[in-house]
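In response to reviewer comment 3 from the previous cycle, which asked for concrete evidence that the modeling workflow produces usable outputs, we include below a single protein chain processed end to end. The sequence was submitted unchanged, and the resulting C-alpha coordinates are shown without manual editing.
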Amino acid sequence: MKIAFFEIEEWERGFLQERLKGHELSFHKEPLTADNAGAAADAELLSVFIYSKVDEEVLAKLPKARFVTTRSMGFDHIDLAACKARGVIAARVPVYGDRTVAEHAFALILALSRKIFLAYERTEKGQFDYRGLQGFDLFRKTIGIVGGGKIGLNVARIARGFDMDVVVSDPFPKPELAGSIGFRYAPFEELLSCSDVVSLHCPYMPETHHLMDTKRFAMMKR
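The workflow returned the following C-alpha coordinates.
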Protein backbone atom coordinates (compact mmCIF):
# COMPACT_ATOMS: atom_id res chain seq x y z
CA MET A 1 0.00 0.00 0.00
CA LYS A 2 1.18 3.52 -0.82
CA ILE A 3 0.86 5.81 2.20
CA ALA A 4 1.65 9.54 2.23
CA PHE A 5 2.32 11.36 5.49
CA PHE A 6 2.11 15.13 5.78
CA GLU A 7 3.26 17.42 8.61
CA ILE A 8 5.72 14.77 9.74
CA GLU A 9 8.51 15.48 12.21
CA GLU A 10 11.88 13.81 11.69
CA TRP A 11 11.56 11.70 14.85
CA GLU A 12 8.29 10.19 13.57
CA ARG A 13 9.84 8.68 10.45
CA GLY A 14 11.74 5.87 12.16
CA PHE A 15 8.74 4.94 14.25
CA LEU A 16 6.48 4.68 11.20
CA GLN A 17 9.02 2.94 8.97
CA GLU A 18 9.58 0.28 11.62
CA ARG A 19 5.88 -0.45 12.05
CA LEU A 20 4.83 -0.17 8.43
CA LYS A 21 7.41 -2.38 6.80
CA GLY A 22 6.29 -3.71 3.45
CA HIS A 23 4.37 -0.55 2.53
CA GLU A 24 5.55 2.25 0.27
CA LEU A 25 5.81 5.36 2.44
CA SER A 26 6.40 8.99 1.54
CA PHE A 27 7.01 11.74 4.09
CA HIS A 28 6.36 15.47 3.76
CA LYS A 29 7.15 18.10 6.38
CA GLU A 30 4.67 20.61 5.00
CA PRO A 31 0.86 20.49 5.35
CA LEU A 32 -1.18 18.96 2.53
CA THR A 33 -2.58 21.63 0.21
CA ALA A 34 -3.92 21.85 -3.32
CA ASP A 35 -0.48 23.09 -4.41
CA ASN A 36 1.47 20.04 -3.22
CA ALA A 37 -1.20 17.33 -3.42
CA GLY A 38 0.34 16.13 -6.68
CA ALA A 39 3.27 14.72 -4.70
CA ALA A 40 0.84 12.16 -3.26
CA ALA A 41 -1.18 11.50 -6.43
CA ASP A 42 -0.48 7.74 -6.23
CA ALA A 43 -1.22 7.40 -2.51
CA GLU A 44 -4.07 5.16 -1.42
CA LEU A 45 -3.90 6.30 2.20
CA LEU A 46 -3.09 9.74 3.56
CA SER A 47 -2.14 10.75 7.08
CA VAL A 48 -2.31 14.44 7.93
CA PHE A 49 -2.27 16.77 10.93
CA ILE A 50 -4.19 19.91 11.86
CA TYR A 51 -2.78 22.36 9.30
CA SER A 52 -3.56 20.23 6.26
CA LYS A 53 -6.74 21.09 4.37
CA VAL A 54 -8.50 18.08 2.92
CA ASP A 55 -11.28 19.53 0.77
CA GLU A 56 -12.77 18.96 -2.67
CA GLU A 57 -9.92 20.75 -4.47
CA VAL A 58 -7.30 18.63 -2.73
CA LEU A 59 -9.19 15.36 -3.13
CA ALA A 60 -9.58 16.01 -6.85
CA LYS A 61 -5.78 15.75 -7.10
CA LEU A 62 -5.70 12.47 -5.17
CA PRO A 63 -7.54 10.08 -7.50
CA LYS A 64 -6.30 6.89 -5.81
CA ALA A 65 -6.99 7.96 -2.23
CA ARG A 66 -9.42 5.70 -0.40
CA PHE A 67 -8.64 6.55 3.21
CA VAL A 68 -7.55 9.73 4.98
CA THR A 69 -6.80 9.97 8.66
CA THR A 70 -5.82 12.92 10.81
CA ARG A 71 -3.41 12.43 13.70
CA SER A 72 -5.61 14.58 15.92
CA MET A 73 -8.95 14.46 17.69
CA GLY A 74 -10.23 17.52 15.84
CA PHE A 75 -11.29 16.99 12.24
CA ASP A 76 -12.72 20.34 11.08
CA HIS A 77 -9.87 20.56 8.51
CA ILE A 78 -11.36 17.57 6.67
CA ASP A 79 -14.37 18.09 4.42
CA LEU A 80 -16.43 15.03 5.34
CA ALA A 81 -19.04 15.65 2.66
CA ALA A 82 -16.38 15.80 -0.04
CA CYS A 83 -14.81 12.59 1.28
CA LYS A 84 -18.16 10.80 1.29
CA ALA A 85 -18.94 11.94 -2.24
CA ARG A 86 -15.66 10.43 -3.46
CA GLY A 87 -15.93 7.25 -1.41
CA VAL A 88 -12.99 8.22 0.80
CA ILE A 89 -13.12 6.98 4.39
CA ALA A 90 -12.14 9.63 6.94
CA ALA A 91 -10.83 8.82 10.40
CA ARG A 92 -9.32 10.55 13.43
CA VAL A 93 -7.54 9.71 16.67
CA PRO A 94 -10.33 8.83 19.15
CA VAL A 95 -8.45 10.08 22.21
CA TYR A 96 -5.01 11.18 23.33
CA GLY A 97 -3.61 13.52 25.94
CA ASP A 98 -6.88 13.58 27.88
CA ARG A 99 -5.06 13.69 31.21
CA THR A 100 -2.36 16.00 29.88
CA VAL A 101 -4.87 18.60 28.69
CA ALA A 102 -6.89 18.31 31.90
CA GLU A 103 -3.80 18.91 34.02
CA HIS A 104 -2.81 21.87 31.85
CA ALA A 105 -6.31 23.33 32.23
CA PHE A 106 -5.96 23.08 36.00
CA ALA A 107 -2.51 24.65 35.85
CA LEU A 108 -4.14 27.66 34.17
CA ILE A 109 -6.90 27.74 36.79
CA LEU A 110 -4.30 27.78 39.59
CA ALA A 111 -2.27 30.43 37.77
CA LEU A 112 -5.35 32.66 37.79
CA SER A 113 -6.61 31.86 41.27
CA ARG A 114 -3.15 32.49 42.77
CA LYS A 115 -2.16 35.37 40.44
CA ILE A 116 1.02 33.49 39.66
CA PHE A 117 1.81 35.28 36.40
CA LEU A 118 1.33 38.71 37.95
CA ALA A 119 3.66 37.72 40.82
CA TYR A 120 6.18 36.37 38.29
CA GLU A 121 6.13 39.63 36.32
CA ARG A 122 6.79 41.66 39.46
CA THR A 123 9.65 39.39 40.48
CA GLU A 124 11.20 39.70 37.03
CA LYS A 125 11.20 43.48 37.49
CA GLY A 126 12.61 43.25 41.00
CA GLN A 127 9.34 44.39 42.56
CA PHE A 128 8.51 42.43 45.70
CA ASP A 129 5.33 44.21 46.80
CA TYR A 130 2.77 41.55 47.70
CA ARG A 131 -0.21 43.92 47.70
CA GLY A 132 -2.78 43.01 45.05
CA LEU A 133 -1.51 39.43 44.82
CA GLN A 134 -4.04 37.84 47.14
CA GLY A 135 -5.84 35.08 45.27
CA PHE A 136 -8.66 32.81 46.32
CA ASP A 137 -9.03 29.20 47.48
CA LEU A 138 -10.55 26.65 45.13
CA PHE A 139 -11.77 24.74 48.18
CA ARG A 140 -15.59 24.57 48.19
CA LYS A 141 -15.80 26.76 45.07
CA THR A 142 -17.96 25.60 42.16
CA ILE A 143 -16.34 24.70 38.86
CA GLY A 144 -18.52 24.44 35.77
CA ILE A 145 -17.22 22.11 33.08
CA VAL A 146 -18.73 22.57 29.63
CA GLY A 147 -18.24 19.30 27.78
CA GLY A 148 -18.18 16.07 29.74
CA GLY A 149 -15.95 14.02 27.46
CA LYS A 150 -12.71 12.34 28.47
CA ILE A 151 -10.85 15.62 29.07
CA GLY A 152 -13.74 17.29 30.89
CA LEU A 153 -14.24 14.31 33.18
CA ASN A 154 -10.54 14.28 34.07
CA VAL A 155 -10.85 17.96 34.99
CA ALA A 156 -13.79 16.93 37.21
CA ARG A 157 -11.65 14.28 38.92
CA ILE A 158 -8.88 16.81 39.63
CA ALA A 159 -11.42 19.36 40.89
CA ARG A 160 -12.86 16.83 43.33
CA GLY A 161 -9.35 16.43 44.71
CA PHE A 162 -9.46 20.14 45.57
CA ASP A 163 -12.83 19.53 47.26
CA MET A 164 -14.63 21.67 44.69
CA ASP A 165 -18.30 21.34 43.80
CA VAL A 166 -18.42 20.20 40.19
CA VAL A 167 -21.19 20.95 37.69
CA VAL A 168 -21.06 19.54 34.15
CA SER A 169 -23.06 20.49 31.06
CA ASP A 170 -23.13 17.93 28.27
CA PRO A 171 -25.73 16.85 25.68
CA PHE A 172 -25.01 13.18 26.45
CA PRO A 173 -25.02 12.78 30.26
CA LYS A 174 -23.57 9.68 31.93
CA PRO A 175 -25.29 9.39 35.34
CA GLU A 176 -23.10 6.49 36.42
CA LEU A 177 -19.96 8.64 36.05
CA ALA A 178 -21.58 11.55 37.85
CA GLY A 179 -22.11 9.27 40.82
CA SER A 180 -18.66 7.66 40.82
CA ILE A 181 -16.68 10.90 40.25
CA GLY A 182 -18.94 13.10 42.34
CA PHE A 183 -20.50 15.81 40.18
CA ARG A 184 -23.93 16.79 38.95
CA TYR A 185 -25.24 17.65 35.52
CA ALA A 186 -26.96 20.99 34.87
CA PRO A 187 -28.18 22.98 31.86
CA PHE A 188 -25.56 25.30 30.36
CA GLU A 189 -27.20 28.53 31.54
CA GLU A 190 -27.55 27.22 35.11
CA LEU A 191 -23.90 26.18 35.08
CA LEU A 192 -22.83 29.68 34.06
CA SER A 193 -24.83 31.34 36.82
CA CYS A 194 -23.64 29.12 39.70
CA SER A 195 -19.96 28.58 38.84
CA ASP A 196 -16.94 30.40 40.24
CA VAL A 197 -14.73 28.89 37.54
CA VAL A 198 -15.82 27.79 34.06
CA SER A 199 -13.68 25.50 31.90
CA LEU A 200 -14.60 24.77 28.27
CA HIS A 201 -13.91 21.28 26.91
CA CYS A 202 -16.24 20.96 23.93
CA PRO A 203 -15.29 20.51 20.28
CA TYR A 204 -15.46 23.36 17.81
CA MET A 205 -18.44 22.93 15.49
CA PRO A 206 -21.33 25.11 14.23
CA GLU A 207 -23.29 24.43 17.43
CA THR A 208 -20.44 25.72 19.62
CA HIS A 209 -19.40 28.67 17.45
CA HIS A 210 -19.43 31.78 19.70
CA LEU A 211 -20.65 29.59 22.55
CA MET A 212 -19.68 32.39 24.91
CA ASP A 213 -21.30 35.67 23.90
CA THR A 214 -22.34 38.89 25.63
CA LYS A 215 -25.61 37.40 26.84
CA ARG A 216 -23.92 34.36 28.40
CA PHE A 217 -21.08 36.33 29.96
CA ALA A 218 -23.76 38.44 31.62
CA MET A 219 -25.14 35.30 33.28
CA MET A 220 -21.87 34.64 35.08
CA LYS A 221 -20.68 35.77 38.49
CA ARG A 222 -18.42 38.78 38.58
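The CA atoms of residues 48 and 70 lie 5 Å apart. We consider this sufficient to address the reviewer's concern, and the full set will be provided in the supplementary archive.
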